[in-house]
Design a protein that fits this description.
Elements: E1 3-7, H1 11-23, E2 27-31, H2 34-41, E3 50-54, H3 62-71, E4 78-82, H4 87-96, E5 100-103, H5 108-130, H6 132-136, E6 142-145, E7 148-151, E8 156-159, E9 162-165, H7 168-179, E10 185-186, H8 187-195, H9 207-217, E11 227-230, E12 234-237
Parallel strand pairs: 1-2, 1-3, 3-4, 4-5
Antiparallel strand pairs: 6-7, 7-8, 8-9, 10-12, 11-12
Helix pairs in contact: 2-3, 7-8
């Protein structure tokens, strides 16, 4: 039985979500504050398979909660609920580490489909980790360049002997850049093709993602050689930069 943690302070909405999720066979726990959610998730073995996290919460808001989760190494699939569907808010959630978002008011069937999608991705990830021998004989969803490799299926970046976990959205963004290796990619294209955002917004918000990726990808984040800024356009990924010596 899949376990869902709902973090929602609107009692009528939380009760409605609990009723419908339990009717679908999920085990549901509801908390009304960010602090309570972090307490649940800080258990040695958090009894949660997916988190439904509202942005507007008393005390710590959803952005703070997801950020603290990821900083603590808790990569439980998380769907954020926001009363505002503005692109800037969506991007702020993704930058903090959310895996998906849904704007209020939402269709219950869409919410259920999003939760099932996150659970499937979690199952695929666990399967890939539990069957490494079998997977070794098949093509891996990965890309290697120099002493670095990104494993999109496991959402992790390996740099020499270090492993850095990636959120689903970070992995998707890096995959998109790798697919367009060597070509300038506009911020607008990344917003539309990676996140499906089409409304007018400050496209420079995507720079937040590049900051974290550069910390892991680059030997010197201040002098990037793989994730290059293309002035006035966006970014360009270079797998094998020319020797700077």
């Amino acid at each position: 039985m899949n376990r869902v943690l709902i973090v929602e302070d609107e009692q009528h909405l939380a009760d409605g979500l609990r009723f419908n999720l339990e009717a679908e066979g999920y085990q549901v726990r509801v908390v009304g504050t960010g602090e309570a959610a972090l307490e649940v998730l800080s258990a040695p073995a958090p009894p949660v398979d997916v988190v439904v996290l509202d942005v507007m919460l008393p005390g710590k808001d959803g952005f703070a909660v997801i950020s603290e989760m990821r900083q603590a190494g808790q990569f439980i699939p998380t769907l954020m609920l926001t009363a505002r569907g503005h692109s800037a808010d969506v991007l702020k959630g993704f930058a903090a580490g959310a895996d998906d978002y849904l704007a209020k008011p939402f269709d219950l069937a869409i919410l259920m489909a999003r939760i099932r999608g996150l659970l499937r991705r979690g199952e695929w990830l666990r399967a890939s980790l539990n069957h490494t021998v079998a997977a070794a004989a098949q093509p891996q969803d990965s890309f290697t360049f120099g002493e670095k490799s990104v494993h999109f299926d496991r959402q992790e970046l390996r740099v020499r002997d270090q492993v850095f976990p990636l959120t689903l959205m970070e992995a998707n963004l890096l995959r998109y850049l790798v697919q367009h290796e060597g070509k300038p990619v506009s911020r607008k294209a990344m917003l539309e093709d990676v996140w499906g955002l089409h409304e007018d917004t400050d496209t420079r918000a995507i720079d937040n993602f590049m900051v974290r990726l550069r910390k892991h990808l680059e030997d010197d984040a201040q002098r990037p050689r793989h994730l290059l800024t293309v002035r006035g356009v966006g970014y360009r990924f270079v797998a094998h930069p020319p020797d700077s010596k």
